[in-house]
Amino acid sequence: MTTDTSALASLLSLVKSGKIVDLSVSLAEDLPGAWPTHMPFQRKLFNYFKDQPALGQPLSGSRGPYHTAVLTIDEHAGTHVDAPAHFIPPPGSGLPNAAEIGKVTVEQLALTDLIGPAAVIDVTALTDTGGPGVSPEITPIHIIDWEAKHGQIQPGEIALFRSDWDKHYVRGPEGSKYAMDSVVLKSGPGWPSPGVSALELLFNRGVKTIGLDGASVGSSHDGVPAHVWGLGRGMIYVELLANLNQLPPRGALFAFLPLKIQGGSAAPGRGFAIIP
Q1: Does some domain include residue 83?
Q2: Is 23 part of any domain?
Q3: Contact, 222 vs 182, CB < 8 A?
Q4: Do 85 and 151 have their domain in common?
Q5: Which CATH number covers residue 213?
Q6: 0.70 exceeded by the pTM?
Q7: I need a labelling partner for 31 at 20 to 30 A (CA). Which of 7, 9, 174, 273 fits?
Q8: What pLDDT, on the 0 to 100 scale, is given for residue 55?
Q9: Residue ranges of the chain with pLDDT lower than 70?
């Protein structure tokens, strides 16, 4: 009992005395938080404190003096985690890449795999360097160069690729650079994304969970290979992170807490880090 109490006290001390960094993007109808070809995020007021008939969308308070709204949200909107079921079909489906792990949906993900020490790998040199519609590739050499400065990535660490791509997560026409320009319009570069060889290096290092501040672990020009390779081996991807530039290369504790969506291919949630 003494040991348990001491451990709890240490954890509470870390939370209270450390710096908490919010690593999540905000969701709003005028922010680019949904995949460009998917259902856009929408929030519609369902009930307000009292009738507001003068507004463009009249609000009703007939259900009581409280405020609530209805959300339309894709599983992959905002900061979210991908489960293996996102790209791996279940066995017996007759589909390509079908495997047993395709039965793992988001509510089955262990929270212990979404909490751990962060290895924040700086790949900002790649940002905005891709061709129209093309993501520059994060390769093993980017990881190895980082390890030469900060030490080899250890099993159980959570690898976070910092590209500062979240600078494009803004309202208005500039927000089109986040994903629309590269994925749909093919008029601008995509976010830096890891190639299969980089994922293989991390997997062999014992890394299960990776995250990045771009729109997807998959590239803007071909998102399938990275998803199939990693998710097919039980890796977990946290996408649309933000503020990774506020974290040290090592020393922060990362956590992502997803919604528990039964059968979900993914789930939005809240990502954060604690810096002692």
Answers
A1: yes
A2: yes
A3: no
A4: yes
A5: 3.50.30.50
A6: yes
A7: 273
A8: 66
A9: 1-3, 55-58
